[in-house]
Amino acid sequence: MAGGRRPGQQAVHHPEAGVLALHFEVLVPLQAPDQRLMLCRAADDETQAALDRLCAR
Q: For the MmyB-like transcription regulator ligand binding domain, which residue ranges apply (predicted)?
């Protein structure tokens, strides 16, 4: 995979969990340059705890 957009951080509002701070990276497959794969992970402990609560449901 080749690089896509530069990695960054974005706040996303979830209707149940509230504001989630996410680190993201966008990858572009070499064999399919018209497609994108976006990887997201918690940017802080508060967001990680909120994601854990959502997954535990």
A: 4-54
| Weakly modelled stretches of the chain, pLDDT under 50 | none
What is residue 49's three-state secondary structure?
helix
Predicted TM-score (pTM) of the model is 0.74
> Distance between CA atoms of 1 and 26, rounded to whole angstroms?
10
Domain boundaries, the chain: 2-56
**3-state DSSP assignment of residue 56:** helix
For the chain, the straight-line distance linking the first and the last C-alpha, in angstroms and rounded, comes to: 34
